[in-house]
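Posted in: Protein Modeling Q&A

I'm a second-year student putting together a small comparison for a lab meeting, and my supervisor asked me to include a predicted structure for UPF0237 protein WMO44_06245. I've never done this before, so apologies if this is the wrong subforum. The sequence is pasted below exactly as I got it from our records. If anyone can share the structure token output, I'd also love a short note on what stands out.
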Amino acid sequence: MKAFITVIGHDTVGVVAKVAGLCTELNINIEDVTQSILQGMFAMIMLVDLSNCNVDHDQLHKRTDALAAEMGMQINVTRQEVFDAMHTI
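Accepted answer (user: helix_wrangler)
Welcome! Here is the predicted structure, written out as tokens:
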């Protein structure tokens, strides 16, 4: 299952490393990533594969919420099917 992880907040050292570290810990494969700094704000989108993730959906969101709180940022995980459904007529 594919998903998008988005990260938004004030730019700080180690954001990519911390999010990638959580993905490694949860056995989530990062397939693509883009990031930008926009007037001091950090924005990143990762396309990930959750097929081998070692926690369930609720635990994944708890872990990303905890990391977001620790970093003072916003982290969202959205399954690709949600985007696909939005464009289906």
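A couple of things worth pointing out for your meeting: The longest strand covers residues 29-38. Residues 57-71 form the longest helix (15 residues).
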